[in-house]
Amino acid sequence: MDRITLIQKIIKEANFSAYLEIGTQAGKSFLPIKCKYKIAVDPMFCISSKRKIKWLLKNPLNIKNKYFEETSDDFFAKKKSFLDKRGKIDIILIDGSHTFEGSLKDVLNSLKYLNDRGVIILHDCYPPNVASATPAKSKNEAAKKEVEGWTGEWCGDVWKTIVYLRRAFSDLLDVCIINTDYGLGIVRIKNKIQKPLSIDNKLFDEMHKIPFEEVKQNAESMIGLKDENFTKVLINELAAKI
Ligand SMILES: C[S@@+](CC[C@H](N)C(=O)[O-])C[C@H]1O[C@@H](n2cnc3c(N)ncnc32)[C@H](O)[C@@H]1O
Predict the structure, then answer these.
(1) Smallest Cα–Cα separation from 89: which of 189, 173, 9, 158?
(2) C-alpha to C-alpha distance for 234 and 216, rounded to whole angstroms
(3) Distances from the Cα of 211 to the Cαs of 135, 198, 204, 217, in angstroms?
(4) Above 80 in pLDDT, residue 56?
(5) How far is the CA of 98 from the centre of ligand 1 (A)?
(6) Half-sphere exposure of 234 toward its Cβ, with a 13 Å CA cutoff?
(7) Which of 37, 157, 159, 214 is the S-S candidate for 135 at Cβ 3.0 to 4.6 Å?
């Protein structure tokens, strides 16, 4: 199951009404999703007016979309009043920066606005091979490193965010990866978060020492890897909290 299908099923079954997407590009995932309120954040949208009109006709809920052309860091820092007014968000897709630091910050910022019964989904958490896990700021930068086994697929080191969250916040968060669509990281709130979560620099640095091969060998303990059937469990669990 791909991210778009999973997100749509969750929205329907859990009766969710607010969706935030970090990293939208041409709107391949954002525009088809049917949800009452949708917010997109990307410093470089590439959605033509023609495409917006096409998707407005196909999915009229797109009329209310809010677009923020900026990095997610700027969005969370500068749009606090918009976010506070908007109220809690039910479901968040993080698919922007493919770096460990960027994706971790996106999760920690997103948690400030996530509905307690909501869910964060991170794309690209389980790279198909070591080359596609090459740490870099962009796919071009990763390609230039000419790592052996490069196939043109690129996930970066977002997987470190999952390892980090499972080690740092096992008391507060339920975190795993579903082995589908390049690895969908799933983050849910287990126990009420009393104050904003911050980054522990020592643990952060430790993540950089873990080779991706080690994660592949210890996938269950390190990243809570689940097979695709877990999508059904997840949808049912989220729907049961209504
Ligand atoms: C892989 S694409 C997103 C694809 C889209 N979600 C889809 O499913 O088709 C990544 C996007 O993230 C954006 N991006 C990169 N860094 C970002 C950041 N710091 N904050 C928000 N978006 C970012 C890029 O401009 C790019 O458009």
Answers:
(1) 189
(2) 23
(3) 11, 24, 14, 10
(4) yes
(5) 8
(6) 28
(7) 157
| Model confidence, pTM | 0.98
Domains and CATH numbers, the chain: 3-240 (3.40.50.150)
Q: What is the 3-state secondary structure (H, E, C) of the chain?
A: CCHHHHHHHHHHHCCCCEEEEECCCCCCCCCCCCCCEEEEECCCCCCCHHHHHHHHHHCHHHHHCEEECCCHHHHHHHCHHHHHHHCCEEEEEECCCCCHHHHHHHHHHHHCCEEEEEEEEECCCCCCCCHHHCCCCCHHHHHHCCCCCCCCCCCCCCHHHHHHHHHHCCCCEEEEEECCCCCEEEEEECCCCCCCCCCCHHHHHHHCCCCHHHHHHCHHHHHCEECCCHHHHHHHHHHHCC
Over 80: is that where the pLDDT of 242 sits? Answer: no
Residue ranges around ligand 1 (CB below 6 Å):
22-25, 28-29, 41-44, 71-72, 95-97, 102
pLDDT digits (tens, 9 = 90+) for 211-237: 999 999 999 999 999 999 999 999 999
Which of 122, 92, 226 minimizes the C-alpha distance to 184?
122
- Centroid of ligand 1 to alpha carbon of 22 (angstroms): 6
Nearest CA to ligand 1 atom 16: 97
Burial label for 155, CB within 10 Å (0-12, 13-18, 19+), is: buried
Place of tokens 């630091």: 101
| Atom of ligand 1 at shortest range from CA of 26 | 9
